[in-house]
Amino acid sequence: DGPKKVVFLVNGNLGDKSFFDLGAAGMKQIKAKYGDAVETKVIEMGTDQTKWLPTFEDVSEQGFDLIVSSTFEIADILSEVAPNHPDQTYVLVDGVMPYEKGGYDNVYSVVFKQNEGSYLAGILAAGLLKDGTIPADQGTSIGFLGGMDIPVINDFLTGYVEGAKSVNPDIKVAISYAGSFNDAAKGKELALAQYRTGTAIGFNVAGLTGLGQLAAAKDVGKWALGVNSDQEAIFKESDPAMAAKVATSMVKNIDVSILRTYDLFLEGKLPVGKVEAIGLAENAVGLVETGNMKTLASDDLKKQIETARAGIIDGSIKVTSAFGLETDKLNALRDSVRP
Amino acid sequence: MTDFDLASLITFIPAILRVTTPILLAALGVLISERAGVLNIGVEGMMLTGAFAGVVVSAATGSASLGFLAALIAGGLLGALLSFAVHVLKSDLILSGIALNMAAAAGTTLLLFMLTGDKGMSGSLSSKVLPHLTIPVIAGIPVLGTLLSGHHILTYAAFLAVPGVGLFLMRTPMGLRLRAVGENPESAAIAGINVRRVQIGALVTSGVFAGAAGAFLSMGYVSWFSQNMSAGRGFIALAAEVMGHGSASGTMFASLLLGLAEAASIALQGAGLPSELMQTVPYLVPVIALVVHARRRQRQLARA
Amino acid sequence: MTDRPLIAFAGISKTYGNGTLALDDVSFAIRPGVIHAVCGENGAGKSTLMKILFGLEQPSSGSIQLDGEAVAIASPRVAAERGIGMVHQHFSLVPSLSVAENIVLGQEPRRGAFLDRVAARRRVEELSRRYNLAVDPDATVRTLSVAAQQKVEILKALSRDVRVLILDEPTAVLTPPETEELFDRLRDMRAAGLTILFISHKLREVRALASHVTVLRAGKLVGDAPLAAIDDEAIARLVMGQAAGPALKRGGRSSGAPRVVVTGVHLKARDANDRVEGIDLTVHAGEILGVAGVDGSGQRGLVSLLTGRAQPTTGAITYEGKPSAGLGTAALRRLGLAHLPADRFQDGGSKRMTLVENAMAGAHRLAAFSTGPFLKRRAMETRTEEMIARYKVRCPGPNAPLSALSGGNAQKLIAAREFATEPHFMIADQPTRGIDVAAAAFLHERLAELAAKGGAVLLITADLDELLTLSDRIVILYAGRIVARLENEPGLTPERLGPYMLGLESAA
Amino acid sequence: MIRSAFASFVITAILLVLVVGIVLVPIAMSLPDPLAVLDTFVFGPFRNPRHTGNIIEMATPAMMCGLAVAVMFRAGMFNLGVEGAFFLGGLATVATVLLVPLPAFAMAPVGILVGAVVGSSVCAVPGYLRARYDASELVSSLMLNFAALFIGLFVVNYFLRDPAAGAMVSFKIPAEAKLPKLITGTRIHLGTLIALAACGLGAVYLFMTRAGFEARIVGSNPSFAAHLGLPIRSILLRSQVIGGLIAAGAGGIEMLGLYQRFSWQSLPGNGWTGVVVAILARDNPILLIPAALFLSYLQVGGDLIARNFDVPSEAVGLIQALVLIVVTAQAIMRNPRLIRLVAGKKPAASPAQETKAVEGSVA
Ligand SMILES: Nc1ncnc2c1ncn2[C@@H]1O[C@H](COP(=O)(O)OP(=O)(O)OP(=O)(O)O)[C@@H](O)[C@H]1O
Ligand SMILES: Nc1ncnc2c1ncn2[C@@H]1O[C@H](COP(=O)(O)OP(=O)(O)OP(=O)(O)O)[C@@H](O)[C@H]1O
Ligand SMILES: [Mg+2]
Ligand SMILES: [Mg+2]
């Protein structure tokens, strides 16, 4: 029979520099690896949520072998569509089906433990301050710039704060939310406000808004931490001075995991009807260690990060997740590090 | 952020000016169109397109000035396009403006994708930025230096444009004609003025201002273009113009107020209040200011 | 003077977008250096023809020849280049601009890139002196009285180098001395070689000024003759298609109880022209009280007080014995107030709404036209059709927008609405401004009839013939005060009123 | 009347073919099967009942938001609060059905009612500020839209958030609260009937009631309204409250009709759609229905080609923008010669300069 058909449904628009772009990159990797044996397709469903269900229904009838989509919101859509198409296989990235209620034997969910990767980012940020690599006159606290006050963003925050606290229990973290994912100018302004009030290094988790932090870091000569993809690499060619201020990026290898999903699917080993949570152990999240970090971080600090990684993998270190965390508890965590 | 001493207040001022700049530039554009009777709802789309053109052309030519020029031209062309829809096709003004915004959002993303293979941002293009200006002597003076020196060139341009636009509207023959056309097109036509030509000119000029506002975002604030990066500033500019009651100075004060509210909400992030509530500040302050202002006007009228 | 016509209309027809045939194959010629009058009923097509000559409308067919050469007048700009100026029936000023700005608009004096305000002011002052039309160049037009705006209009037309001046009902709101002055100036201009096209419903003015008259009726040319060759009655017959009815006899009514009593009323207004500086006034049932005065002597303030749009700063108004303090327009209208406003399109109606809607607004809450919250559209339409028929409103139909009506016809419809409520107290503010003779006579009958039935009428008018024809008593306003109270006895003439109106005498 | 309206429709159809031709044909030509692309765009929405259903589902909030805009525009109010009212109405409806213990049958009606009342504030507050202080309703409504968004997000985060969910969304809307589906195989729900009824009632209100008549008088000439002694302020306020109630009610209906949870994290854009629909329909409530259906048809057709062919969704956005401009192009649509050509009859009078009226109310 002919080539296999895989489709990735974007419940928004491409260009977010985050899950959607990474998902599309995963489709490219599948195509690159399997060539003519596979047909891949990416469909943008847009931001109008009422259009998502009809698109899933259409696509489910078009004979795809694998239908991939991402984000938690899609779980609700799949819970309506998947039972009606028992022969169709679905993959939900960064979201979980309510398996405990039974059913959904045709959906494979995979979630990323971004809190684990962020824990390492927190160690790096706090460590750079503690060991004086970033001198105290640049600032004494670290920053976090979130797109919105929502669980998937806060999952980065909890790990980041806990990682930093593991280095310095008294660390202060300036936390801002932009309220938008595409306003780079506002992201820059928020980052500048943090830098102005004593932040020396900040972590942006805000899509296109977050990139504004890089411009701010360049302007004031302080430091930024990228997210999802290697943000140093984005500007390496076009703006080396800015790229030089990205200490590292906490990557979330959605692309790699989508390719892995397809590999497993071909082998007949895809664990449908289940959720897999992948993190440091699976190399699904982690820090970019080949860029600025290589020269910036001391060997001690790198060692400390390695130790933490091992601890998380072997379970001796537990990182709090924002999923399922009550608002009160989250507020308590944020209050504990307020500058 | 509790220590609101003079020093932190002064460091706060450049932030206000930065936030105000794109709003003010766009609002002056809206002002010109509004006084000519053709309210430019498409300012958001023109801004976005200006931001895009600036980046692409400066990357292609290696020249920030050419990029900036392209941003102005792109905004002006969209103004001409809007005026084509309104004056030649005789489409509805508001609807054409909304359609233009839709088209600009889609068109810039599409072109970006065609040029870079990326729909999100232009990070792979080495585009140029416009400079910040240090004013020789003043820069050295403690407080005054922070206030007056070191801002982006377009920040100076925006504030200098205020008396420029004010003078243009109130003191030049062209401005007189423009106001006459906006207030009473039939009378203007009777006076031998080509209403259509004046309105076309106003929309093009309005687009040029919007293009400059866009260039500030992509060649000032940051050094790249990203999807929908105007992020609603065009509508804020529309509000600023209306709050300014049709005068250039009023528009400037309204823009400054909006900028101040936004900058304050940014500075107050991390004060421990829910971020959502902090984010309402930039939108509630103008409403309150509007009411206070309107009440004062009412009282003045009542007293007169 | 040559015999070659300066302007020749050749077979001009005009059909408006809504299908109204406003002009039907009109041809006539105008010789240079004359004052040429154009007469006709409301809606006859006079303004349309002038707009075509001025480039504001394009003819559907036919052509215009200027100096024997066929010209296409595509816009007012072209008209101005050809030396044609026009004073419009409806104002064409920009309210927020100053007098000087309005006058120089389109041909501004410059100093460098800027408007030369000094030169503009000088130009206005010079014009104002030359034509003896006093205006304040720095005043904002919005604050001017209608008469003052009319002067600005005329100055604006004269400010261009014109050889042809079109005046579309320019005298409607001028006082007699002002009108006489204007006529003198127009005669001077003719002597200086200017050709003047003059539209008026007042035969007396036509005769006093013009040497030639063209009459239009329902879009057709029905008469074109030197004035020397035609008598008034013949013109009236041409205008109306029939002989005029007998003129109304003045006075002779007996007045009843006081209906509206104004005592010691003051009104502070932003605009000095609207201020009321202490007025005592009683309008009785069954009488018509005429109010004379140069426009801007406090009439607007008085009207806004009487209609409830403003409350007196001091003093009191009683309405059928009850104090009206705090009552708004709606409450007063319920008590029987009606008001024919001076500016018919600004206050009297809505151009974009249909005739039915304009005619029934206000009455729509009556039981005859609504059940519960709902309107009885059929009844409203029937009623409007009756009004249209009774008031002879020339219109495409009851569902046409008001904007499609000529000025006079719109006024008739609005009058029909205000009379329909059988008011106890009617304020008629310039009720026949711009209305043709027949329609004016008709409205005069309505006012007289209303008074005869016991209604109280306050008539504010700049037309002293009208004032003297209708009023039982006359008060004269000057600077917000009553300077004279006169019984309208047979000997009273416009000349006697003049000195009071100009504030030269006082008898109160 | 009917004939020239019909002529307008024929002209529209011809124009659309032209526009789609100009933009889509070059794109389609670059693809393997250009005819299939055109075919899908034009006829695709009617091939599958589900897609036809999508048109109607999408038109439902568009009609109601258009009605809300039309009611306010007719009173001369340039209130853009429909966007925020729709959002807040949806939120308050969901909050009511989640937090208030209600018998099953009362959930939807009470929820929508509460949603309508709460959400209407985004239109009513600017309305009040305008009526009371003469403060520009354009500015305050534009600003309050965003304020409503962030206040709404705060409420979701602190009061309605399902901690078991991985996104900032409310708990699930109970099944009993959902609006019943009308046609199996589609998602068309009771809300569509409500929207149609609302448009009918809107026409009755504007053209057949005293209150609507008075609102139109105020909207078309406030001085005339003052001459008549109409209570202008309360009429202005009333129009904006009605507009707000309709818009917010639409938000609630949308939630209970099509959503499982409250999950908006930004303004959903229905307010702008409402403005577009109202302008297309020239503020006529009955014409809102075809206008909304037309807009949704374009959307569904565009989505279908973007989904099934290599046509970027942005190209579809461009086509839609162009179509909007062309269908309101009076130079073409109301060209007397064209209309005569199609209808064989003289065109009706065109109300003078409608754009001017809108501008006037902005100032
Ligand atoms: N920022 C400014 N700096 C210096 N001069 C200004 C400035 N803004 C305006 N002016 C001067 O004031 C004049 C009035 O301009 P402006 O735009 O403020 O109109 P305005 O007369 O105040 O309008 P309004 O009638 O609404 O009050 C201008 O012609 C200019 O000479
Ligand atoms: N813009 C228009 N659209 C449609 N019909 C119009 C328009 N302007 C005028 N008409 C119609 O054309 C006819 C002639 O109007 P015109 O204004 O020329 O009359 P007129 O002789 O000046 O009357 P009046 O003495 O009342 O000013 C009238 O029936 C009028 O209703
Ligand atoms: Mg001012
Ligand atoms: Mg006329």
Q: Can you give keywords for this protein?
A:
heterotetramer, A: 339 residues, alpha/beta, six-stranded parallel beta sheet, six-stranded mixed beta sheet, 13 helices, C: 508 residues, 17 helices, 24 strands, globular, binds adenosine-5'-triphosphate, binds magnesium ion, transmembrane (chain D), cell membrane (chain D), membrane (chain D)
Topology:
The complex is a heterotetramer of chains A (339), B (304), C (508) and D (363).
Chain A: E1 4-10, H1 19-34, E2 38-44, H2 52-60, E3 66-70, H3 73-81, E4 89-93, E5 107-112, H4 114-130, E6 141-146, H5 151-167, E7 173-177, H6 184-196, E8 199-205, H7 207-220, E9 223-228, H8 231-236, H9 240-243, E10 246-252, H10 254-267, E11 275-278, E12 285-287, H11 292-296, H12 299-314, H13 327-336
Parallel strand pairs in A: 1-2, 1-3, 3-4, 4-5, 5-11, 6-7, 6-8, 8-9, 9-10
Antiparallel strand pairs in A: 10-12
Helix pairs in contact in A: 1-10, 2-3, 4-5, 4-12, 6-7
Chain B: H1 6-35, H2 43-61, H3 64-88, H4 93-116, H5 136-140, H6 142-148, H7 153-171, H8 173-183, H9 185-190, H10 195-221, H11 233-243, H12 248-267, H13 275-303
Helix pairs in contact in B: 1-7, 1-10, 1-11, 1-12, 2-3, 2-4, 2-10, 2-11, 3-4, 3-10, 7-8, 7-12, 8-10, 11-12, 12-13
Chain D: H1 2-29, H2 34-47, H3 49-74, H4 82-99, H5 104-119, H6 121-133, H7 137-160, H8 190-208, H9 210-220, H10 222-228, H11 232-258, H12 270-280, H13 285-308, H14 313-327, H15 330-333, H16 336-343, H17 354-362
Helix pairs in contact in D: 1-2, 1-14, 1-16, 2-3, 2-13, 3-8, 3-11, 3-12, 3-13, 4-5, 4-7, 4-11, 4-12, 5-11, 6-7, 6-11, 8-9, 8-11, 8-13, 9-10, 9-11, 13-14
The structure holds adenosine-5'-triphosphate (2 copies) and magnesium ion (MG) (2 copies).
